[in-house]
Structure formats: structure tokens, C-alpha cells
Amino acid sequence: MADSLYLSTNSKKRSADEFLAAKKQMKHWESDPAASLANARHEFGEHGGVNMSIEASATFTVMEPETMGRMFSGELGPDRDFFIYSRHFNPTVLNLSRQIAALEGTEAAYCTASGMSAISSVLLHLVSSGDNVVASQTLYGGTHALLTHFLPRCSGISTTFVDIQDLGMVDEAIVEGKTKVLYFESISNPTLTVANIPELSRLAHRKGVKVIVDNTFAPMCISPAKLGADVVVHSISKFISGGADIIAGAVCGSASLMNSMMDLHQGPLMLLGPTMNAKVAFELAERIPHLGLRMKEHSHRALVFATRMKKLGLRVIYPGLEDHPDHALLTSMINKEYGYGGLLCLDMETEEKANKLMNILQNCTQFGFMAVSLGYYETLMSCSGSSTSSELNDEEKKLAGISPGLIRMSIGYSGTLEQRWSQLEMAFSRLQDSKN
């Protein structure tokens, strides 16, 4: 719940009345993420401003010398407006964290300096040296590299990669007592395969394994915690930011998880220092209220373009299309107001063909930009195999279903829909003419 209080590991638990009140608030979220956001605590400015103030201080003063000792012992904390140091908790970042928790329907959240810092912090917290992670073989390249190379070398943590859609394979890969985390993306980067979050969560929980879901591709559209996930991670840099101008991340989960990750002695969020700047948190907090409107338009345009491209005979991949193999599964999980997401893929078979089309789309018809990342108001496109998935070797790309000519498109909402479609059609026509 977005308005949950962060409790220090040494402080008392909330009363039963407070817990019931928090449960009541959860019902608002279950109907719609936007309802949960609207129901969350609104932070006003210091002088009554409708927008919160930015708390730019790195450190905080106390009125009595004894207070500092009580703060470090855990007796006094942010739940009672006592702050020590902004690497620990900052009021502005804490407010953004409440919004992200409301968005995902979790008790708490903590915002970090990047998506990768959020992912690495929670993995290092839940998995120890000698333990195992079971993960989808189709992941963002940076996450794949973290699991394949960095964690085994630096932490003695192994990863077993599986086809996340093969529940039998996942079940067989999980070793009770050794596997600590099942990790996957709600909608995979870049192939747009859909994870069966409820079934995967049930399978993992039967064996005492925590489920971490990266929901970067589908904020508002999918609510993994509602479907059984223990932890939800985000690269806020993408759809949530929407401006392609901020690097940020978030970990969402139970209040006890956030507390332990912020522990002064062992918490990775505290000790590794992936701290979000308060000014960045303020910027992001101002954008979240219109995230739902943005996601609806991203999804709407992606569905229209995918449908029309399909009619042209192009090899388009979009889970909102009825002939996509995961369409029924995704339909059963989505918050229907927000559609099937703003990403589609176009398989041009070879990197040469993909590059030729993207060059025309950017430099001739002005449909979009050749750039990595996603969630921007302009369309961004890249050939995944040679860019955001380049950390995978050829065999890993094959297993992940990433063809050399796979173009990932993050569909924007600038301009009119028909204007952008005419630019797409013109590009396809020019590409065809160049073959003749």
C-alpha cells in the first residue's frame, strides 16, 4: 500500500487497526492502478504548495543530542519524520517511493539511481554465495550479463536459464534449498513473450522460492504483485519517466523486505549506495499522475500499427494481436483499461534489412528515431541483436528467439496516428522500391 509506513527493523509493528486500514486501501488498487495512485497520500509543499517541496539536504539536524542515538538504534525513523542521511532515506525520494508502491499495489517501494541498481540490489539481498537463481533465457541484455558473468565471478551465485513458458522445465530447474529466486520479465525484452505470472508464482512458492518480476515493459498494464509475485522491479527511465531524460529504478515489495534492504548493517540499498537524487525524485513524481493516460495511448497506437502491418504481410510481433501465441494469457492478466503495452517487434530476418528500414524510417520519412530505450513520446527503434541484447552470444540469442533482423519499436504518441501511419507506409514502399 502506497501509504504504508517504513518501519525500522528494530521498531514496533503497526497496530492491527492500522493494518486493517491498509488492507481496506488495497481494495481501491485492485480495481485499477490509477485508483490506488489517486488514493495515495498527497505530499504538499512546505508553504502549502500543491506540489511537494524538494528536500535537497544530504544530512538532517536534530533538536536534542539524544535523538540521534535513538535514530541509529532504530527507535525513531522516517515513519515518524526522523531522517538521518539521504543515502538512507530522503523525504522527497520516499514520497516517490510511495507513488511507485501504489502503482504496483505493494506495501512499499524504494527508488534507486537506475534500473540495474534496483535489480542487482534485490538479487544480492535475496541470494547468497553458493545459491542459485532460475531465470528466463530471454532477458534484457544487462540483466543477462549480470546473471551470467558478474554474479558468478564476484558473488559465487549461479543462474540456470530456462524457457519461462515451459512450466515443467522451470519446475525441474528449481532445486529446493539451493534455488532462492525465480526471475523473469512480465513481457520479455525484446521478443515480447508473456510470462504466466500466477502459475510461475504458485510453482515457485511451493518450493519456497521468491519471485522477482521486471515490469518495465508494462507499468499500469500488468500488476505482477496482484498476480502472485513477491518483488517487482522497474527501470523508471522508460515508460514511467516518459521523457528519455532520467535514469532511475525501483524495487517494490513488502515493507519488511524494504526495511531489511535498508538495514544499517546488512542492507544492500544502504551499503551499496544506489541513491536517487531528490531533484530527480521530484521530477518523476510530477509525471506519474499522467502515466495512465500515456500508457493508454502507447498501447492504442501499438495495436493499430501492429494490426495494419500484419495486413501488409509483415512479420510483426505484438501480444495484443489475436494470433499472437500469448494473446489469451496476456488478456487474462492485464488491467484492461491500459491495453497490451507500447512495444512491438518487426522481424526483417537479417540485420542488413533491419538497418535499411530503420534508416528510411528515421532519415527519410521521420517516423521515429534509431535509439535504445523505450517509453518516450517519440517512437524509438533498434535492432536488438546488435544493441540491447548484444551481451548475449549467438547461441543465447537463438535460445531467446532473437533473430538477427528483429527490430524493437517503442511506439510513441507524438503527431497524429494517421500522420505516423502514412510515414510507416511510405517507408515500407521505399524499401520495396529499393529491391526492384
UniProtKB/TrEMBL annotation:
<dbReference type="InterPro" id="IPR000277">
    <property type="entry name" value="Cys/Met-Metab_PyrdxlP-dep_enz"/>
</dbReference>
<dbReference type="InterPro" id="IPR015422">
    <property type="entry name" value="PyrdxlP-dep_Trfase_small"/>
</dbReference>
<protein>
    <recommendedName>
        <fullName>Methionine gamma-lyase</fullName>
    </recommendedName>
</protein>
<dbReference type="GO" id="GO:0016846">
    <property type="term" value="F:carbon-sulfur lyase activity"/>
</dbReference>
<dbReference type="GO" id="GO:0030170">
    <property type="term" value="F:pyridoxal phosphate binding"/>
</dbReference>
<dbReference type="GO" id="GO:0019346">
    <property type="term" value="P:transsulfuration"/>
</dbReference>
<dbReference type="Pfam" id="PF01053">
    <property type="entry name" value="Cys_Met_Meta_PP"/>
</dbReference>
<dbReference type="GO" id="GO:0005737">
    <property type="term" value="C:cytoplasm"/>
</dbReference>
<keyword id="KW-0663">Pyridoxal phosphate</keyword>
<dbReference type="InterPro" id="IPR015424">
    <property type="entry name" value="PyrdxlP-dep_Trfase"/>
</dbReference>
<feature type="modified residue" description="N6-(pyridoxal phosphate)lysine">
    <location>
        <position position="238"/>
    </location>
</feature>
<comment type="similarity">
    <text>Belongs to the trans-sulfuration enzymes family.</text>
</comment>
<dbReference type="InterPro" id="IPR015421">
    <property type="entry name" value="PyrdxlP-dep_Trfase_major"/>
</dbReference>
